[in-house]
Amino acid sequence: MLEDERTPCIDLPLLPLELQCISQFMNRLATPVLLDSQIEEFNRDALLHVPGGFGTENMALIEGWTTELAELPEITGRQWVFHEESQTDQGTDLVSRIEKMSPFHSGFADLAHALMGPAGQLLGEEAVLFKEKINFKMPGGDG
Question: Structure pTM?
Fold first, then answer.
């Protein structure tokens, strides 16, 4: 199994080595640090929009990890993959969402870790990951 300092990475012998945990060899995400004014905005409005919170390079990494995850074979006990039938192309199966990915993908483990700091700033205490999910809005999908 490939490892980083925090979390085991995906280890799937069904994939070529160069596709196994591509994120293992990428730069890690920068943790956004919120300004006092942003924390005040969150306390006032109960939401915070942070344009550019992750830069272009980091967003490209996250997009790549999402594609990587969606293309992995489904193996019992790994990430949870949910499907739906296409509304426009009967019989076509679409991935509608994926859950529980950070234990099996170091990139998403990095993303969860990077978000803990700013989430903790907003909450005023240490944040923990309760649930993670990617919702796919596919052409022909039901959502």
Answer: 0.74
